[in-house]
Specification:
Order of helices and strands: HH
Structural class: mainly alpha
Distance between the termini: 82 Å
Number of helices: 2
Number of strands: 0
Shape: rod-shaped
Strand content: under 5%
Helix content: over 70%
């Protein structure tokens, strides 16, 4: 009988682990979606900033020190 209770406990713990894994996967999916949105916004900001820099200024090499 002790073997049965140990087996039940292991099966219960396995079910809890699988549930936790599913929760982690859902959270990871949400985080990846948010990171994708942030990446898109950063690309937009980079393009805006690059458009504001005049080409002549951007073409001048930095002063030698």
């Amino acid at each position: 009988m002790e073997t049965d209770s140990r087996l039940q406990r292991i099966e219960q713990e396995l079910a809890e682990l699988k549930s936790g894994q599913a929760d982690l996967k859902a959270t990871l999916t949400q985080v990846l979606q948010l990171l994708s949105r942030i990446d898109g916004r950063l690309d937009e900001q980079r393009a805006t900033i690059n458009a504001l820099i005049p080409t002549r200024i951007a073409a001048v090499p930095p002063a030698a020190e």
